[in-house]
Amino acid sequence: MERHRPTLRLLEATGGFLAWGAQFAILYMAVSVACARGWGSAKLLGLPALPAVIVLSTLAALAAAAALLLLGLKRRKDTGLTASQDFLNNVTILVSALSLVAIVYNALPGLLLPSCS
Amino acid sequence: MNAPPPRDSFEAAPPGLPNPLPRPENEFADLERAWKPPRGIAFLTETNNNFVGLWYVGTALFFFIAAGIMALLMRAQLARPENSLVGHETYNQLFTMHGTVMMFLFAVPAVEAASVYLLPNIQAARDLPFPRLSAYAFWAYFFGGLFFLSSLFQGVAPNTGWFMYPPLTSTEFSPGVNADYWLLGIGFIEISAIAGAIEIIVGVMKTRAVGMSLNKLPVYSWAMLVFAVMIVIGFPAIILGTILLELERAFDWPFFIAARGGDSLLWQHLFWFFGHPEVYIIFLPAAGMVSMIVPSVAQTPLVGYRLVVLALIATGFLSFGLWVHHMFTTGLPKMSLGFFSAASAAVAIPSGIQVFAWIATIASGRMKLTTPALFIIGFLFIFTLGGLTGVMVAVAPFDWVAHDTYFVVAHLHYVLIGGMVFPLFSALYYWVPVASKRQLSERWGRWVFGLMFAGMNIAFFPMHIAGLIGMPRRVYTYQPGLGLDPYNLVSTLGAFMFAAGVALFLLDMLRNFRPGGENAGNVWRAPTLEWLPNGNYNTRSVPWIASRDPLWDQPNLPREVEQGRWYLPGTVTGRREALVTSPIEARPQYILVVPGPGWAHVLAAAFTAAFFALLTVKANYLALACGVAGIACVMWWLWQLDPGPLAPPADIGGGVVLPTYATGPGSHSWWAMAVLMVVCGMIYTCLVFSYLFLWLVNPTAWPPAGVSMAPGWAGLAGIGLYALSSLLIWLAYRRLGGPDHRPLVVPVLLAAALVPALAAGALGLWAELSVGLDPKGSAYGAAVTTMLAMQLLFVGIVVLMAGFTLARWWAGKIDRVRRSIFDNVSLFWHYTTGQGIVALVVIHGFPRLAGGL
Description:
The structure holds 2 protein chains of 2 kinds. By secondary structure, chain A is mostly helical. Chain A has helices at residues 6-37, 49-75, 83-112, and strands spanning 43-44, 47-48. Chain A has 3 helices and 2 strands, in the order H-E-E-H-H. In chain A, a hairpin with a 2-residue loop joins strand 1 (43-44) and strand 2 (47-48). Chain A is elongated, with a radius of gyration of 18 Å. The mean pLDDT of chain A is 89. Chain B is mainly α. Chain B is 64% helix and 2% strand. Chain B is globular, with a radius of gyration of 27 Å. Chain B has 3 domains: 49-512, Cytochrome c oxidase-like, subunit I domain (Cytochrome C Oxidase, Chain A), CATH 1.20.210.10; 602-636, no CATH class; 671-850, Four Helix Bundle (Hemerythrin (Met), subunit A), CATH 1.20.120. In chain B, a hairpin with a 6-residue loop joins strand 1 (577-581) and strand 2. In chain B, the strands form 2 sheets. In chain B, strands 1-2 form a two-stranded antiparallel ribbon. In chain B, strands 3-4 form a two-stranded antiparallel sheet. The two termini of chain B are 49 Å apart. In chain B, helix 2 (49-78) packs parallel to helix 4 (131-153) and helix 6 (219-251) crosses helix 20 (668-696). Chains A and B meet through helix 1 and helix 3 of A and helix 8 and helix 9 of B. Chain B: Residues 35-543 form the Cytochrome oxidase subunit I profile domain. Chain B: The chain crosses the membrane at residues 54-74, 94-118, 138-157, 181-205, 217-245, 279-298, 305-325, 337-361, 373-398, 410-432, 444-469, 489-507, 621-639, 670-693, 713-733, 745-767, 779-807, 828-846. Chain B: This is Cytochrome ubiquinol oxidase subunit I.
């Protein structure tokens, strides 16, 4: 594995939380900008813009973390993995699974609370 | 890369021991000679982690005691109402210095110090990859810390709280030098922390025992890796914050002055983006220590290794989503608070995973109640309580009530003393036998623990109640009859009890701590490599390890290592060497000749400290002279590096033949430069964030009315010039990798690349100033000028680097093989031009796109 792009393997192992971080940044920036500029009730293509950003960024982050989780689970069936490869793969699975929880957790205030109060 | 070709995996056991007996005559004597410390005053120039680590830990403990004495003075003042032991001004300085010294001069340096000592031992490495950098970090911290502490004795110590909120810290409300001591002193010490973090990242990833693949990496190493990455991401925010506040104070650039478009909340964002991860930055190393000590005292492997690693990684990420929970009362939208509240609750999950893993390990083994074990139990109890009140204050409505009361003081001390001080004392009792001929007294240790545990709870538990009654933080006295008197008196008694425990510990250290020579040995029957027989060179030979608990699973290992039967049992070049291994599988890659003792890094640290110190007291010309001397010392230091291959590839045992030099993306110096670029990138990202934040709080116009923008052509020209500069450096890089040994076109291209870089840097600033941009007039002007001036500073660094590289070329110290310095300069060059392009895109593009919004 190491001779085949170790940086990529390390990125995969932390990718779930990178997705969480991207979603977190988008949500926080979107709410900050929308509320500071009075765009809390703005519409985009007929849809309420802020909730749309929250839902779309959450779905994108969930998709990224879920893809990594599936990749890890699929790779687990590969019997040719060395111990360190197997370990990194397990880290990928655990990190992406926990990040799914964190991403949903992030989105909840965005879906439950009023935009700019 | 010129590193060796890939070899077979080292995950499986090698066929037999790699080096036979008897070992050649003089092999061991040569090794000892290479690692022999200098004598007399030159001992201060030593870079060996075994010495520097101990100095570092000792200095951190000194600051712990100093800040503890400040705490005792405060508690004595608060023992009864309307007390007059210290006045309010002195009290303000005491609480500011107590918090600042504990956080910046004790907590972070202490865990870095411990790792300088422990990491190479735990990983069976000869030393960290950049020993002079560690030593520089130590000396910078030592000189800078003492200077900072001296402000208290001059009566000019910072007095506005350890988080230095403007506008209280602005020139208008804090006209003295008190705030400057904080901004310049602490800003400087943060540089030391970052130097340490770079060392730790590369040390964990590149200098390990053979076969210590990531799945066998000690949890402590994992913790230090996450810790160092968090420093690299988090500390730049506070470095940038201190730069902006000092610029405002020194030159009246209004980043935080609302009347001219600034916003004091910008400081809070920058401070807490560092400040909250900081809590985990000091907790994770402590958690790593606990994960090493618990299996040892319970005599059973750690339960849930993978989950603990997951918890460390998760904490590292999630802790960056918490910073606004320190700002719940600043009027941010409730939905924003909700995001941070959610992340604050989520971060309890990984902490909980670790706590359960430790409890499960204790339950599955047979733990003896030794002093390290007692401190672990104390840690679990206190930290869990602090975590629970943490979940309480993570709930925004509760925080609105408890904010700025003694409830928060109680919470943060439960977290920090529980989460860091108790594990550190456990670690001191546990690891002293590695460094000392004698271990500390178990009988005294029980008293130390008892006094500290009882004292801590007696001191801080009543503060919860005092806070809920309504006692605010940072008051130097209170009136009688408010119901606060008994709680404060009890807290004071507890504080002195805690201090008695620390004093007893110090006495025991005086009695029993005897470093140097033989150590006390593996007194705990511990499973990890720091308990191998050691000397100044750490381990005689670098072992291959079969598991995470090598001393339990390979019982002959200590004898084999000491006999020199494992890898690299001597010195190939006659100098100090370390074995560099690959980041995931820990395959041996090359022999690294590590720099030894020298004055350059010590003097560089002294002059850098003097530069900041003199700047603080406004002795600007003298400061400038020290700054120039500091740079000269760094150049002198760097001149001695990158020696090229000092010996042909050598057999380190078992037919493993390694080169004595490597360059390119797999080499240690490339890694360090990559990490440094992340640090620089984070500083600049924080600056761009500040620019965008200021746009957000200026809804009318950007740039503000009456301020003109530089013409767009200047931006486009600058982008083109930066791209041209990078292209020329890329061509030089390619030519140096070609067939010629020393192609003359390389220095020509390097010199030519300077012209467009300098032109772009100067043009960017000139274009704005020529249309009358005034950094004093508006936050916009201040932000744009700072972005361009900082870019010009980076170009200046590139000029220095280019001059240095050209000098080395003419001295014959750069060629097709010996090229690490050239490679690093070219990496930094590309970074600088990239940063310049980003700056111009933001400054010229953003207002044109979004200025009217």
